[in-house]
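[recover] target loaded
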């Protein structure tokens, strides 16, 4: 199995989702802003990370 190229953190709120990205070898994640808490916005975000055909995996933890 190939290593990850980035970890994406989502902090979910009622109206918005805050997005941060941690690249391998970096000390801290980089805050990338917020998207609206809508299905279309989440699809758009996933599409941005899969532009070049990378395989994506996801995990939900509570």
């Amino acid at each position: 199995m190939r290593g990850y190229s980035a970890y994406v953190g989502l902090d979910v709120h009622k109206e918005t989702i805050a997005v941060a990205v941690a690249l391998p070898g970096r000390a801290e994640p980089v805050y990338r802003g917020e998207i609206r808490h809508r299905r279309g916005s989440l699809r758009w975000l996933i599409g941005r990370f899969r532009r070049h055909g990378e395989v994506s995996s996801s995990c939900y933890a509570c």
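[recover] notes: Residues 7-49 form one domain.
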